[in-house]
From TrEMBL:
It comes from Chryseobacterium rhizosphaerae. Residues 159-237 form the Signal transduction histidine kinase internal region domain. The chain crosses the membrane at residues 7-26, 32-51, 72-94, 114-135, 370-391, 397-419. This is Histidine kinase. The keyword Kinase applies. Keywords: Kinase, Membrane, Transferase, Transmembrane, Transmembrane helix. One of its GO terms (molecular function) is kinase activity. InterPro entries: 2TM_dom, Bact_2-comp_sensor_kinase, Sig_transdc_His_kin_internal. Residues 358-433 form the 2TM domain. The keyword Transcription regulation does not apply.
Amino acid sequence: MKRNNFITLFWVSLAVSMFFFFAFTSEKTIENFLYTILISMLYSFVLGGGNGMLNSFLNKRIPWAEATTKRAILSIASILILNFVLVYFCNYVNFVLIQKAVTTETFFSEKYNFINWFTINVALLISAFLHAKGFMEELKKTSRKEVVEQKLIAKSANAQFESLKNQLDPHFLFNSLNVLSSLIDENPQQAQKFTASMSKIYRYVLEQKDKELVTVEDEIEFAKTYCNLLKTRFEDSVDFVFDVAKEDYQKYVVPLSLQLLLENCIKHNFATSSKPLVIRIFSDGGTLCIENNLQVREQIKESSGIGLSNIVQRYALLTKRNVFIEKSEDYFKVKLPMLSAKPNIVSVKPDDEIKAYKRAQKRVKEIKGFYTNLISYCIIIPFLIFINLFTGSRSHWFWFPALGWGIGLASHAFQVFGIGESWQEKKIREIMNQQKNRNNGNI
């Protein structure tokens, strides 16, 4: 327990002792006042401290959020056993050792069994309150933590993805202007055509850059248009070969991936009429491949690698499949995974999410209902016992509501935490998961 809890117990015991001293003590002496404080602190620190330490211990070993059913069963069993032991210990120290009102034999007689039973119910009330309070605090803490984590993950992923996509605009524009500036000097007429074509291509860039995935067919058509522009500048120095299977056209790749890789081919390799640069775009085993013969150009400054790293990072955000890079003395190849379907960015459908929320809400209400029932039992039954014993009634009628309500409370506990609808749902899910795993193994 924390230091603040001990301070709270001290003030509670002091307040209780003052109440009993001024309300029920006939001889108001300093000695009796000290006795009252001692007895009050005995019960406060032993019962309150013991239940508090038990709750803290269970919170560390078996948190509510990780194993609700197991924790509830252990909490009920442990508080019953612990309070039974602590109450008998406190009462024995109080009546036998401190007040010396009775002997040990008398303390364990039938008369004091009723007093012990009454005190046990009061202790159970305190313990039930502490455990219910701990459950609600843990539930709120877990809910806040999950919400914050999901918001941070979503914000981080969105920011990272937007950052990657925003790199495309300046990268594409910079390379296109370099090509245009070269054409203006070499062939002004072609430069005009290039400018018109570049505007069409840039329109495609603006349309597709906000998309997470595009079809292979759209990307190939765009790549062909872009290759025609490159062909305008390099003429016979560069050859492009497209050999993508028609059945792969409806698969998906990240947008502008071919354009970035084509730029890299031109940027890092020299091309002449005698030694043309041959760039092949083809499909191979579920991947879209871009391959060129290696004719490495001497670099004045080291490349930033923004194009290829951009593609790799965008794929990492969308799928577990990797981008493969192969390099030999003769060729350089990049393999892009072709996805058969767009991945679900949201793992749970809205309808399923609503149903899951309603189930969780219903579960929380069931648990809260049980603890409300338990706290009510611990308040009302001791009150009935008090009335029955101190009114001098010969018949102990409090046993009937205590046993009847106790049986109902036990049934409620089994229904909420172990046996009942929740247990049936668990078994159904378990059987369905087994059948699902068996079917997956046969595929």
